[in-house]
Amino acid sequence: MKLVILISLIFSFSKCYNSVVVYSGVDQQTQAVTNRLQRIMSNPGINTESKRYLEAALGNINNGVVTALERNMAHPTEHPNGARGRRSVPLHATECCCKVAVPPLRTQKHRTVTRWRDAYRRVRDGSSKCGFWGWKRCTRWRNEHYRISYSHTEPYFVYTPRSCPRDKEVCCRGFMPHKRCCTNVLEMIRLLDLFESQRAQFENNMKKFLVSHGHNPNGQCPKSCGP
Known about the structure:
Blueprint lengths: L1 H16 L10 H14 L6 H12 L5 E5 L16 E5 L6 E2 L6 E26 L5 E25 L8 E2 L4 E4 L2 E4 H13 L1 H6 L1 H7 L15
Antiparallel strand pairs: 1-2, 3-6, 4-5, 7-8
């Protein structure tokens, strides 16, 4: 039981002082999108201009959290004019994750602590009759309670969160690096689907096409992760 409590305390401590989220930066979905994009770019059947349009589209996905048109889930590549509503999509990450755990900086300091302890002493409490037939007067005593202060110096630790080293920064889960920006993986998949299914519309007027699908073609990346 004590071991379980100790492990829980350690886990809670690590969560409190490790402000950087640890993530390898690679998962199956991200790798699949990367491979798919590479296959498109190396496909001799797709002309260079089309590939340039696709690169521009992926590199100009809007920044921040925007309201994007919600696609029909039964037909995800249909034009969003028949969409059921709108949805809020974080198109770019605003924070980076780290490949390694970054322990906090621990600094030892000292402080003076004042404490109190109880003490007792005998004090006079008047007098009373005593002796044979009460012919004498005797001093009466009682215990008086008082407190004594004392000080001592004790050490304590201050934990300061540290940022991830630049060369260990990666995009967090659900985002992948593209053009030095952490872009939403699902949105990249959506644009790849649209490119492959509606290439003619895509190439005809890329800017108009992006706006119609909920993106600002002039958007900029708010956060770059890694060296």
